[in-house]
Write a structure and sequence with these properties.
Catalyzes the cleavage of glutathione into 5-oxo-L-proline and a Cys-Gly dipeptide. Acts specifically on glutathione, but not on other gamma-glutamyl peptides. It holds the Pfam family ChaC. Keywords: Lyase. The protein is of the alpha+beta class and 186 residues long. It has a single domain, classed as Gamma-glutamyl cyclotransferase-like (Hypothetical upf0131 protein ytfp, Roll), CATH 3.10.490.10. 27% of the residues lie in helices and 33% in strands. The strands form 3 sheets. The chain has a 5-stranded antiparallel sheet with strand order 1-5-2-6-7. A two-stranded antiparallel sheet has the order 3-4. The longest helix has 15 residues. The protein is globular, with a radius of gyration of 16 Å.
Amino acid sequence: MISPLWIFGYGSLIWKADFPFIEKTSGYIKSYVRRFYQCSVDHRGTSAKPGRVVTLIPTNDTEAKVWGVAYRISSENEESVLRHLDHREKGGYEQVNLKFYPVDKLRSVMNSFDCITYFASERNQYFAGEADINTIARQVVQCSGISGTNKEYVYKLAESMRNIAPIVEDSHLFALEAAVRNLDNS
């Protein structure tokens, strides 16, 4: 296991860290993109109407970055936090070890470190895959689950990314947010 244990959040873990942590820092991982390619049949949808949530998609683009937040977990809480996240991130997600690049308030990259995150691979039964932004948006506006509406998830993630990395353009996320708002307001 990674020591100290750091957990990287790139979706709802950014605004809903429902576990104890001793430090939180913003930054990014490399060689991945964030995409709404995973179905949610519990948190943001149901089995009858699955919502869409984010996962990480590997890319050969070494300049690609996914921004998010890393949480340092105390040694006495490592096992309970991992058990909690294993349950929370059910529905096709699995653990992966990645390198995290923290960024300070002046946007300087500090020393990288190893972290754990959860991602949904193409092999899982809930992987929806690529679709047109408008198709995903139509799915999002119709869905809700035990954690709230799917559109709330999109809005909170977009807002969180603007707070964490205001100069970074997450084109997939922001295009989906705009499409969802357009449908939501019509």
